[in-house]
Amino acid sequence: MSNTTMNLSDVKFAPDDFAPLNQAQSADLIVRPSLSYWQDAWRRLQKNRRALWSLYLIVGLLAFSYLLPLLVKFDPVGQDLTQISQAPSLGRQSLLVDTTPWEGRFAEPLAGPLGATVSGLQLVGEAHTESVKLSWQPVPGAVAYDVFRHLLEPSGPTDLGLPLGQTERVDQVYFEDRLKLQGVNYYYSVRAVDVDGNHSGYDTIEVKPRHAISITEAVKRGLVSGDDAATAIGQEVELKRHLMGTDYLGRDMLARLAYGGQTSLFIGIVAPLLFVAFGVLYGGISGYLGGRIDELMMRFADFVIALPFLLFMILFRVAMGIGPGESGIMPMLIALVVLSWPAAAKLVRGQVLQLREQPFVEAAQLMGANTNYLIWRHMLPNVMGVVLVSLTFSIPTAIFTEAFLSFIGMGVAPPTPSWGAMCNDGVKSFLSHPHELLFPALFISLTVLAFNLLGDGLRDALDAKMKG
Fold it and tell me: What does the DSSP assignment read for 364-426?
């Protein structure tokens, strides 16, 4: 049997032999396009609806705090003393009234021993939040009358409420309450006093003032013109809307929430960015160098962890000359950055120590890769997932820290708003005006919840073992 030798020069190729295969002819079909690490992580994050909606919520909170004040004219410190602690509303009608002091009523004093009780207590005219006018019948032997106001119906002579004052003349049988009132039920009580200081029985009347605004204040605000002021008395005007109500000083809650978000989110985002970035640098250097240097650097990190945060916060305030009642935003920011980086540093160090032993790093070293190449092409990209997750979990901690420090009076001071400071103000009147606490607490809760859910989603999306 003879062997036949074939030369390549004898082989004839046709152009069709080099035509690309179509999908029907291809044995290796591409199931899905090739994606980079970050593209694949984004694709998996989009499948996590909770994390995606949390991301949208964070963007919405940032827009509410930073974009809305640019589009809408807000005044976070402006006071409307006619609408103190008002509940959320779409606007309200207010009665225009003349606040000229009432001339009152007088009656000839009656001689004799002190009468048993006051009688004939009645309301004069219409009660409104600018003025409540009361009159009563004279009591024999009375030289003056005490007037009280209570939010609850008195249960006895020792439970008459807030003393409003005492009449100045013996023949005076009237009283005008010109304190800033609210549109709630009040119980006014009057008792007589004789020359020896003895008290008679009291008479009580229930009054619910109607919301009103003085004609002078209405002209100042531009609600009515000065020319129509005399004829406008007794009419109603539409007051400024407060969609989230007002606080105890008549300041708009919506405006303060928007500007307060700038303070809270600034502390909550900038501080973690700074101390996580420093922690990444510190932990990366420590883990990459290893050995004795790593040991020394980690012992210093342990020392920083042991430092008391509140004590250093006070020291930074004193060092920067910030006294009681002044905002301590910068000391708070510095204290967070100086004392909060060890957690991120330890996390990154552990990741770098693991990466140093990976085969792809050893292969890069054998191929002559220098330190910069190893750090930027292998170390940093592989720890970024852990860093982002650490960042998203550090932001809620920083927001809670700001809220806590403002709550105890060491953070943001009035009139600068922040969500924590607003909670501090709102807790004092929570039983009577719950919206002053609920709204800032709700914004803090939503922000913390959103960042926590986003952190969970990023952890799953950036974990290569969870690809699917």
Answer: HHHTT--HHHHIIIIIHHHHHHHHHHHHHHHHHHHHHHHHHHHHTTSS--TTS--HHHHHHHH
Residue 410: which pLDDT band, with cuts at 50, 70 and 90?
A: confident
Other C-beta atoms closer than 10 Å to the C-beta of 449 total 14
Backbone angles phi, psi at 393, to 5 degrees: -85, -20
Question: What are 193-212's pLDDT values in tens digits?
Answer: 999 999 999 999 999 999 88
User: What mean pLDDT do residues 304-320 have?
Assistant: 86
Q: Enter the tokens of residue 355.
A: 């990466």
- Region 441-464: mean pLDDT is 85
Q: Tell me, what amino acid is at 443?
A: F
pLDDT at 16: 65
b/e map 127-157, b = 16+ CB within 10 Å: bbbbbbbbbbebbebbbbbbbbbbeeebeee
Give the separation between CA 61 and CA 80, rounded to whole angstroms.
Answer: 26
Evaluate whether 439 touches 39 at the Cβ level (below 8 Å).
Answer: no
Which residues have CB under 8 Å from 62's CB, separation 6+?
Answer: 265
Instruction: Give which of 308, 306, 301 is closest to 281, Cα–Cα.
Output: 301
pLDDT at 161 over 80: yes
What confidence score (pLDDT) does residue 55 get? 92
> Which residues contact residue 140 at a Cβ distance below 8 angstroms, ignoring those fewer than 6 apart?
110, 111, 112, 113, 114, 115
Tokens representing residue 272 in the block: 């973690």
Instruction: Count the alpha carbons within 13 Å of 73 in the hemisphere toward its beta carbon.
Output: 2
Q: Which residues contact 415 (CB under 8 A, 6 or more apart)?
A: 76, 77
Tell me the C-alpha distance between 402 and 422, whole Å.
12
In contact, 349 and 341? CB cutoff 8 Å? no
What six digits make up the tokens of 360? 């792809």
The total of other beta-carbon atoms located within 10 Å of residue 324's CB is 8
Q: Are 304 and 339 in contact (CB under 8 A)?
A: yes
- Element containing residue 42 per DSSP (H, E): helix 37-47
Q: pTM of this prediction?
A: 0.74
Instruction: Strand 236-238: give its sheet, edge to edge.
Output: 212-214, 93-97, 236-238
Averaged pLDDT for residues 400-413: 80
> 109 preceded by cis ω (within 30°)?
no
Contacts of 325 (CB under 8 A, 6+ apart): 413, 414
Query: How many angstroms separate the CA atoms of 15 and 131, rounded?
Result: 103
Rounded CA Rg of the chain = 37
What stretches of 360-442 adopt beta strand conformation (E)? none
**In angstroms, rounded to a whole number, what is the distance separating the alpha carbons of residues 420 and 441?**
8
